[in-house]
Amino acid sequence: MTASAQAFRAESRLIVVPLNAKDFEVIEDRGEGPRGIWCAAADFARSRLGAGGGDRLYIKTGRGPSISAAGRKGVVFTLDPARLGVEPSRGYSVSLSKVGYNLPVGHAYSFCTDYWEEFFPAR
User: Coil, strand, or helix at residue 44?
Assistant: First the structure.
């Protein structure tokens, strides 16, 4: 395994596993909800894939059994809507299950502020 293919620990402390050059999986842990999972996806997309705030993150495989960590749950994301097999969609709630659901990387990364405040509380 090359260094670029190794797992990544996101700001939300979740593990992100690159699956190929376009897709990656966020592994659930500690009962983390949608905000933490989207934060991890955005952090990986920015840090490892060079995505900008206006690029979009898409759910490729909704929340379910992990494909990279046996016995765990995960969500597979992609930055490439052509890899979905369905039309991209948007909504008012933050989904983890709907294939094609997407958010801008900048919006998803804003969920990471939950973790910044934990380590750098306002005075």
Answer: helix
